[in-house]
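Appendix B. One record, verbatim.
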Amino acid sequence: MESGADSRISRQYEYLVTELESSDSSIASTIREVFESERPEDHRAFLETLSRRLTHHNSKIVKMCSNNYALFSGSVSQLVNLCPDVGRLQTKLNGIAEQTAHAIAVVEKNQEVFKKSVCSCRNIIETRSAIEKCLPVLRMHSNMRKLLKTPDMHYHALKMLEELSTEVLPQIEEFEFSKKLRVDLTRSRNTIKAEVNRSFKTYLESAWANAKRIGCNAMKIVVHTAEQYKQQNLKASGRSPSKTETISALTHSKYTWESIDESLRNVDDVINFKALFKCQLIFDTLEKDNAAFSRWYETHRRDQLAQLLLTGFGKECKREKISEFFEQVLGFFIIESYLVDSNKKIVNWNTICATSAKHVGWWDETVAYIEAQLVDEVPSKIKIVEDLKYLKEILLLFSQTAESLSLPSPKLTHSAFNLRHSFVNKLNDAFSRRFVTILWKEVYAPIVVNSSAKLKEIRKIFPIDYIEAARGKCEVGRTLPFSESVPKIYFTLKEFVTELQNFCSGYQFNPQVIEEFVIKSLDSLIEVQLRETILTLIASIDGRGKKSKFLPADKSLTRGTLNFGELSQLALNCECLSGSMPHLATFIAMSRTSSSVMDPRNSCSRLVLLATMDPLQELVTPQSSSCKLNAASNIDSVVFDVQYRMREYMKIKIDGILELIDYNWTTDQSSSAPSDYVTEVTSYLKNVRMTNKNTLSNVVAVTTYMEACKHIAERLKSELVEPPEISFTALKCFDMDLTCFENFTAQLQFPASDAETLRIVFIDVRQLVDVLLRMEFVQFVSMSADASVRVKYSRVRREELLSLLEKLFIHEDNRRRATVFNRGADRDLKKSLETAIRDLRLQIYP
């Protein structure tokens, strides 16, 4: 057992020693394990083991040293033998070292040169490659710059620029100068864009500046074509141009064929459209949109059109402004039509003229503007009739030229036709002023034919045939019934008719339509202008204190109120003028017969006929004229107005004389002579009758004097109502004056029936005076109580009789109180008056 334990301990210590030999780390743990043992034998055993291991190692070391020494000795011997060789070798090595060092230095030097050469070669290769890439770019850029500086080569420059920008430059993006090239290309693109804007602005200015010339020349060409067609028709029919056709041609004297500019026939000779097309190519390339330029173009041209429409006909609508406007509009659309025909897709037909109701084109806007302006604004600004005629002519020519451009123009023709209303209004105002001048300068005395030249002159302007048929042939030395104003007014009416027919000549209406329009306008002129002018003339005052267009514009042309003789002459003038109206109607009918309408089926009618559009189709349809001239009846109404003014004038004169009435209604002294006012009134009436015997017909005279006598009777009756009391003596003086008026009616040289009619006018006053002076008022009261009995004094009104009886009663009562004589008779009279008054009051106020 003990030996087994020792062997175990011995193996343990062997292990520990082996650990000490082989461990590279700290031996503290091994030693600690040895010395921590509790038994001393263990220490000793460890030391013995350690000693044996040391002895074993020492023996190995001795063997190793012996072997190494032997080897060392042999080596030292060999080293001693090699020392001479080493010396020689050392010398050779030193030489080789020097040569190697020198070679190394040379190699190092050549290596630096080689490195530089390699770098240079690499740089040269890279540079060559870069130059091969960049040189075409630079060459293309240089060519682009040259093209950019060359006129009219901007599109090619832009194409090259776009190729550089999109295809070439991306290949050299690694080079720094490509950035500079891109900046330069951007600058060049802006330069091209600025050049496009400048060229387009130049085109717009050129189009605006030449549009007027182009439009004017187009209108001249249309007029020339129409004139050629007209001359062919005239030559074929073998007749000469009518007056209407001559006047229409003179209206277009500005647009004669002699003034046609042949250089303006082709629009592209005036407007540089090639520059516009290049602008289109450049702009579409810049914007990368094929419709970009079209939109841009339409925007600017629409602005120009809006500016043109805004300017319009000018503030005063003068001829120059009117023609310039229409010429500018035509030139505008001629240029646009050329662009449509060019198929460059800059502007399409739908933009110019709408092809559907949902779209409004430029032409539709222009027509709508012209139509709106012609409704009221433009005609109201035009003050001269000739300017309105010019507007109508130029509008029809404008419509005709537009039609030749395939632009629809029915609305324009309709607007031109509607100008007739404004034309008639302006013409009425102009002729109204002529009427005023004629009537205000009139002497109102019959014309004395003192020479054959004067008679010939009158026959030339006035139809006196119907007067000769009634009064005998007019010869030198005779007096015509009318004054100077009648031929002048008749001739003025004929001029009015001629003006209307000339105005309607351009429309080529059915002659019956023209006749109807002329008749209605003439009736309106007579009914309004002539009638109002005469009414203003015969007014009781001159009218200078009130505003009226029927007064002379010249303040020096004034006259006072017309007297009775002038009024009677004026009435006779109106009657003579009324009698000449059938001749005027014949003149209108003859004008209709002589007018001609061109055949609308002809292929050239589009250039000549100006009113065959749908809105006016009813105007050119043949129809029979049912319109008759009412001028005679209108003038007859003026005669009635003048006659009424004559009666009023006579009443005013009579009232002025009747102001002298000064009855003493309380007097008891009788008079054997009529009052002074009676003598003056009868003298005035006799003088008027004798002075105007030739101008007053029996019918007019009887009517006038009838009104005068009625007025006198009313004034006499009113004189009986005014005083508070009346005496029988004053009533007898009044009866004497009344008898003088009754007897005067027989001295006026009227037929017996008319004289009796005038006498009857005083019957109301006569019966009222007779029932009082004959003391039959009691009988009248008793008879009036029975309504079935015919009363002798049937014209006496009970209220008037009651008023006069009361006034007589008051006077008799006052007189009876003032006197003491003859009271018995006064008592009977008073009683009769009192009884009659009582009975009348019971009848009037039951």
